[in-house]
Amino acid sequence: MSSSPWAVVLAGGVGSRFWPLSTPTRPKQLLPLVDTRPLLVATLQRMSALVPQERTLILTNASLVQPISAVVPEMPRENIVPEPRPAGTAAALAFAAAEIERRTGRDTVMVCVHADWAIANEPEYRATLERAIKVAQDQHGLVTVGIVPTRPDPGFGYIEPGEATASPDARRVQRFIEKPTRERAAELCAKSCLWNSGIFVWRVGDFLDEIRAHTPEVAPGLTHVDGQPDSLERFFGAVRSVSVDVGVLERSDRVYVVPGDFGWDDVGTWASLSRVQTPDAHGNVTSGTVIASDAANNVVHAEGNSVVLFGVSDLVVVTRAGLTLVTTLERSVDLKTLIDSLPSDLQALP
Prior knowledge:
The protein is an alpha/beta fold. The protein folds into two domains: 6-266, Spore Coat Polysaccharide Biosynthesis Protein SpsA, Chain A (Alpha-Beta Complex), CATH 3.90.550; 271-347, no CATH class. The protein has eleven helices and 17 strands. The strands form four sheets. It has a five-stranded mixed β-barrel with strand order 6-9-7-8-10.
């Protein structure tokens, strides 16, 4: 690689689908949901062989700066970027790119990842990112890593690869497909489409050029990234919310996809833990003191209490001090709807 890359970690949000364990002051990215490490710590550690923390930016909510600093005290404080308000991933990544350009120049490669993923094969993950970095440098384009599907999952967006390129590791992106029906997802898998992972790699100058050309929602903010103490507030005051997929990638003709096959999973719901943790002989995934008798395919998190299951299946059971949640694996994806209907004291759990 001709220059040292930077990493950008998206670590905002409260992870409402992991309620009641995930709360505004203790969101899922700071919880040990896959192994003993908080998800954010695992993300930084798996990236550290490729990008050290001094070249890593963490983008998060303003309220999470102190909790993140406590979890990763070695992270330079100026590298934890508190977004003044939610403005979509296009704005967040544009600010990060402009800040990296200001610090190190427009040719610097930026690797964007999320803080709430599970990765089974970390060496292959890093090798895939290195291939994507080379494509971004050689093609001067915007590179996304598309995951080779393991199932026709309607919960993910898809990428249809297009024509070949000079790089054997990449193809142009033909189109992006929003979350399909299960039947349509099976058709897309049969056509060798890829999951849209949200892993992005590009030279910061190339990305900012595309923002200026295609993203009027965000481009006006770029002039405010000047290193002054109020640049963050001025930038976010000048942008409108749009996702990077809609605002940039779907409008650009310089987008490439590199396939990845390294055991990626989005830790998005309680049900996802049954894929990213090792179940017992009956398919149960448990944390804490749990006794399961004649019980199968349950996800249980016991914090401060013991949980006994008898003769049940396909449940999610979560306990924490003073509160127990019981739902089904199928309905666990709808927890945000539940939270909105709860009394305010339960919505605002610490």
